[in-house]
Amino acid sequence: MRKILKLNHKAILCLLFIVSLIISILSGRFRLNINDFIYFFPQLLDYFKTGEYATPSFTIIFGIRLPRIILAISIGAALSIAGLIFQQIFKNPIASPDILGVSSGASFGAALAMILAFNIPHSIQLFSFIFGLLAVLIAYMIKKISKNDNILYLVLSGIIVSAFFSSLLSAVKYLADPYQQLPSIVFWTMGGLYKANWSNTLFCLLLVLLLGYIFQKLSYKISILSMDEDLAKTMGINVSRLRNSILILTSFMVAICVSISGVIGWVALIIPHISRLIFKNDKGLTIYTGLIGAISLVLIDTVARSLTPSEIPIGILTSLIGAPILGYLIIVKKTI
């Protein structure tokens, strides 16, 4: 009976994924219908032959919506998987990638690039990624100097780094031009997929697929770390090296995502709880978590770009949706 229920859950999840893609492709300020979606595929074959956009609807789907949808899938999956891994390794149901200061560092880097106005292609994404990764490395450096292998010291190091970069971000906001630079900084820190193009979309997708595959292969060892480190040591696992490698890889993935989309909160915190609620400790939990995260962000982004004439930052919607869900999980399901 349990196997049948699990199969039903998996089938429903796959169906939701397909439906969310179709809804997202057809929705937007320029409305499309199901015929536009059906005729898209033969037009795609013609595009590969001629290199020309056949119709306005094909231009909208292939040139604008599809890269954005695939980017939403990649980032939603990446943040959800990262949240799951952090919660398992830190043995804390409210742990997320922000715990090591990735988002704070990336936000400061993006804001710095905006006020310095470097004449470098993709300078905002570049600085965001560099400082996001730098924040993690500083957190590890502080922990190493403390000469203590207790994971609590890594958490404390992350809190220190996060507070430091948050202060630097506030300083940058204070120095920014209030009419041009400050609104851009504030809008970026709220998150959004408006910078999606085929270049950054395919890069992000390939990265998430590669790291997602690695995390799935290591899921058994990660689950052991989440239960008992002493057991892991008796099995010949180098706990410190494995944990640090996984956290660095996860932080790298999150830093890439944040550098493209800005800060998108709550996804990494909420989705792993929903996934565990449905699939418990299924061996494919990492994949299912990523899939639920992908579906969620695709639908939220669809609302963000369709609900009003001007785009709503995704961070606002994820907070509005995430906070009540967290309250429900705490009060009703008691899973946190």
Q: Can you walk me through this structure?
A:
The protein is built from 14 helices and no strands. Helix content is 78%, strand content 0%. The chain has helices spanning 2-26, 34-50, 56-89, 102-116, 123-146, 151-175, 181-189, 198-217, 219-227, 229-234, 239-261, 267-279, 285-306, 314-333. It is globular and about 60 Å long. The chain has 336 residues and is mostly helical. The longest helix has 34 residues, at 56-89. The model has no long low-confidence stretch (mean pLDDT 87).
Task: Note the topology.
Blueprint lengths: L1 H25 L7 H17 L5 H34 L12 H15 L6 H24 L4 H25 L5 H9 L8 H20 L1 H9 L1 H6 L4 H23 L5 H13 L5 H22 L7 H20 L3
Q: What would a concise description of this structure say?
A:
By secondary structure, this protein is mostly helical. It has 14 helices and no strands. Helix 3 runs parallel beside helix 8.
Listing every helix as H and every strand as E from the N terminus to the C terminus, the arrangement reads HHHHHHHHHHHHHH
Number of helices: 14
- Determine the N-to-C terminus distance: 27 Å
Q: Uncertain regions: pLDDT < 50 for 5+ in a row?
A: none
Principal-axes geometry comes out as globular
The class by helix and strand makeup works out as mainly alpha
The largest sheet, given as strand count, sense and whether it forms a barrel, is: none
* Number of separate strands: 0
Q: Strand-residue fraction?
A: under 5%
Mean pLDDT: 87
Report helical residue fraction: over 70%
Radius of gyration (Å): 21 Å
